[in-house]
Amino acid sequence: MKRLEGKWALVTGSTRGIGRQIALGLATRGCNVIVHGRSIAAAEKTCVEVRALGVQARAIAGELSDAEAVRGIIAQVGRDPGQVDILYNNAAIMNAFKPIYEIGMDEWLQSFQVNLFAMVQLSLAFAPGMKARGFGRIVNLTSGIRDIPQLAPYSVSKAAVDKFSRDLAADLAGSNVLVNYLDPGWLKTDLGGPNAENEVETVLPGALYPALLEDYGPSGRFYAAQDYKHLVA
Prior knowledge:
Layout: E1 8-11, H1 17-28, E2 32-37, H2 40-51, E3 57-61, H3 67-79, E4 86-89, H4 105-133, E5 136-141, H5 152-171, E6 177-183, E7 222-224
Helix pairs in contact: 1-2, 3-4, 4-5
């Protein structure tokens, strides 16, 4: 699989769960990692693990539930290390399980802010720099969830992630900035719950696949991490 020496990746929500696995997986490919969490202390813990794999790591903190806070995340990256070559929009929230008729508009807005609007804000902030450097990989995490109306804000926001990914990919066609969307599978995480089908570690190596595509490779495509479980990480 392709090496990523000298590249910097930002992985949102990488202090635990899927994001942590992706951060560590990228580090094994030689990629430097910007670890994002809600607190610097939590991000620094993952940074220690990343550095142990022989690459550089930076810790940043900030909420995705507010546009101004997202601008703060962008500013932190701008100060150090100054660029993002690979962006994993991983962080997401899920609304409380309840009948669709009882889900309030505040829950819809919160789901869209974290799962979609923050992702759009980060993607549009970092894509121009990727384009100028002639290299970029944006991987937006989506979901295979369907026919569960009690979780409609989550599932509808993820459907919007898919469409935005395809639109951004079309805009960046020919630039070597590849935009794809990834379903990690149903995993035993805080979001997925203890009854999920797969252990969180099974997200690798498949979750890395869109970041390791050859130059001018596929863009605007859907990938499922569990399809690559047979590969050697």
